[in-house]
Amino acid sequence: MTSKSQQNVSRFKDIVKGRVKEDLRRYISHGEMIGKKGDELVSIPIPQIDLPRFRFGRNDHGVGQGEGEHGDGVGEGASEAGDAEGRHILEVDLTMDELAEILGEELELPRIEPRGKAQISARKGRYTSIRTTGPESLRHFKRTYRQALRHQLIAGTYDPQRPRIIPERRDKRYRAYHTIDEPETAAAVLYIMDVSGSMGAEQKEIVRTAAFWIDTWLASQYDGLEQRYIIHDAKGRIVDRDTFFHTRESGGTIISSGFDQAAQLIKRDLPPSEYNLYLFHFSDGDNWEADNGQALALLRDELLPHLNLYGYGQVRSPYGSGRFIHELEQHITGEAGERMVLTPIKSKEEVYDCLKAFLGTGR
Predict the structure, then answer these.
(1) For the whole model, what pTM was predicted?
(2) Which residues of the chain have pLDDT under 50?
(3) Where are the chain's structural domains?
(4) What are phi and psi of 154, to 5 degrees?
(5) Which of 111, 258, 261, 272 has its CB 3.0 to 4.6 Å from that of 192, i.e. a possible disulfide?
(6) Start-to-end C-alpha separation, the chain
(7) CA-closest candidate to residue 286, choices 229, 203, 227
(8) Mind listing the pLDDT tens digit for each residue in 163-201?
(9) DSSP letters along 249-292, please?
């Protein structure tokens, strides 16, 4: 039976979950959760939940005696400093799985169905059956007493007025350990970002925020998730996460250089037979015009056939022409186009809509 304290904790978690869902767009847009991420938990500031207060009331014995009116809060006397009530900000911790659940519910995201060929088998041990012999530490008490009751009923020795069940040796049942082949699904997400001079700090913050939430959702859908990062201006490079989000380059933009690095990475380290592959690409769309044909060919022929999803987010920049999204719309069609999602991102407030567009496909 669930204790009252456990019920209270469960009810409080439901309240917190509801408040986070109400303000999820704001949390996503301003990246408040990212900076507070721990190894397994995310701390979230919830200013709307009031903390409990003690009040003076009827109490003939104990604390609460002295001056004060019924209903006054404890410690609410006059103060020289300040003339307004403070706001209570409560930080609550959510696991990454809980956060992904909230994201999925609020954005109405479908569960991802992994591509069949990307399933791999792993040998795992589980207690999946029952035996009549085994160590006492593995005795299955419910099965044992059920068996003993059955034998007493058959023998006519069970007395409902004195319900006493004593298992005999023949009644004992034990959990049995078996090694089984269990399908697992693994995924890899590749991020490509244009780091040319037209992509400033604000544009990179948008990418950083979107990547955090994409990782959160995909990690909840797969047993294993790996991330790879690629940057490009006129040349593409595979980098680590920190370099990805903090590099500032200058010069022109050749998108095909980033696509080429992604194709090589998949061929070398991420075989599609073992991974569900996702590619998310962010740019201001200001590609060198002579490179458009090469970039589109690489995407269509070398990348899309292996991807669950290609998501292109075109971030608005005061310096970019924004033409590349139109090139994709015009030239990537048919079956290849079905694995592609394109969305403009004009500001941080539109990261929420970007996530819904990218992840709402269920691919």
Answers:
(1) 0.64
(2) 1, 48-51, 74-75, 78-79, 82, 84, 86-89, 116-123
(3) 15-51+88-108, 120-180, 185-359
(4) -65, -40
(5) 258
(6) 41
(7) 203
(8) 888 888 888 888 886 665 555 568 889 999 998 877 878
(9) --S---HHHHHHHHHHHHHHH--TTT-EEEEEEEE-S---GGGH
